[in-house]
Amino acid sequence: MAMLDVADKPQAATFAADKVQSGAPDPVTGYRDFTLGAFRFSRDAYFATIQWPVNGQFRTHAIPADAFLRAMMRDVAWGFFYGWVNFDHVFGTRNHYGKVDMYAGAFNGVMKDAGVDYTETFDTPVIMATFKAILHDWTNEGFDPFAAPEETGSAFGHKHGDNAAAIERTRIATRRMPGLPDDSPLRDDLPVNRAFLDVAQDEPAVHVEPCFEGQLHAFNLFKYLSRSDVTWNPSVTSVCGQSLFCPTTEEFILPVFHGNDRVEWFLQLSDEIVWDIGDKNTGSPRARITMRAGDICAMPADIRHQGYSTKRSMLLVWENATPNLPKRYESGELKPYPVEF
Asked: Which of 25, 139, 232, 253 has a C-alpha 20 to 30 A away from that of 315?
């Protein structure tokens, strides 16, 4: 689950920061309220609350603060990703690559049928700046929304401090493969995660014929992943045209239901992940998949998925970054699954 990064691209939140609308800190909780279009965001000690207008009234929806921050952190880090990022069964975003839909109930079958859903579209820099401002104000000292629950403090309580370092982790673009000259580093400066202490840390020996020096490269992917300091946040480790290998380490719950706008391939590299699969438009359950080391499956373009990993595991996601794929799937030109039997 990673998109093709472009080195030296501008940071969206910096050139739209003046568009963020927020109130004064609450005298009791210390948190600010935020407004984006007709949506209003507020939080207290335990919950983030989203409000939107419908049929001349206002509807509200509450999400536990830790779950909300973990989901919003991925939406920001992924640049709104491919397709839909559902924070839960009600609220989420859809990426139009330059603009972003923000919705409540629009992809919940019951709420859609009841006519209480609402969607508004924003320029990407504006929604990005607002989400980053929310993260900065609502993330307390000691809580890392990227970390597994055992590796971080609590998100709850009244406002106390912040954790800008966790939110603003530097994302280094990979042009071809980590470890190549002028490409992303191999994480040798990061410690091995507690779950991967048994992973070998040696690098492969590369032997090339004369005149081909510098044209062949290899690295230990398991070592690279064993030193990841985040969960459910893939990194591009191989770029071949529009084909992207995006491995990641997973623990606890994928904080979002990701709605696909293209087919994704999943290869389980270690341990086990259980996936709940639902209809992309309504959320109705479709399947439950248990993937163990060596298993591979395709996630179709018409589903949403959320994963559960009891032990920290390694997953390789193979993405197709070909332009215009979403339109080709949405028009019916391409079927939502990769093969017919």
From this structure: 139
Integer CA distances (angstroms), 93 to 85, 203, 220, 235, in order: 5, 40, 35, 21
Q: How far apart are CA 58 and CA 96, in angstroms?
A: 26
User: Quick check: 274 and 307 in contact, CB under 8 A?
Assistant: yes
Using CA atoms, how far apart are residues 114 and 105, in angstroms rounded to an integer?
10
For the chain, the first-to-last Cα distance in angstroms comes to 27
Indicate the pTM of the whole model. 0.93
Closest of 133, 167, 153, 145 to residue 232, by C-alpha: 145
Fill in the DSSP letter of residue 120: E
Exposure of 62 by Cβ count < 10 A (0-12 exposed, 13-18 middle, 19+ buried)? middle
Q: Sign of the C-alpha dihedral, residues 75, 281, 283, 297?
A: negative
**Contact present, 84 and 107 (Cβ < 8 Å):** yes
What value, to the nearest 5°, has the Cα angle with vertex 335 and ends 331 and 340?
A: 165
Structure tokens at 267: 């290869």
- How far apart are the C-alpha atoms of 254 and 258, rounded to whole Å? 9
> Considering only CA atoms, which of 231, 316, 309, 222 is closest in space to residue 271?
309
**Which residues face 246 on adjacent strands?**
317
Give the single-character DSSP code of 87: S
Q: Phi first, then psi: what are they for 36, rounded to 5°?
A: -135, 110
Give the Cα separation of 41 and 29 in Å (integer). Answer: 14
Q: Where are the alpha helices (DSSP H) in 65-194?
A: 65-77, 109-114, 124-138, 164-167
CA distances from 317 to 60, 236, 251, 320 (A): 35, 9, 15, 10
Distance CA 260, CA 243 (A): 17
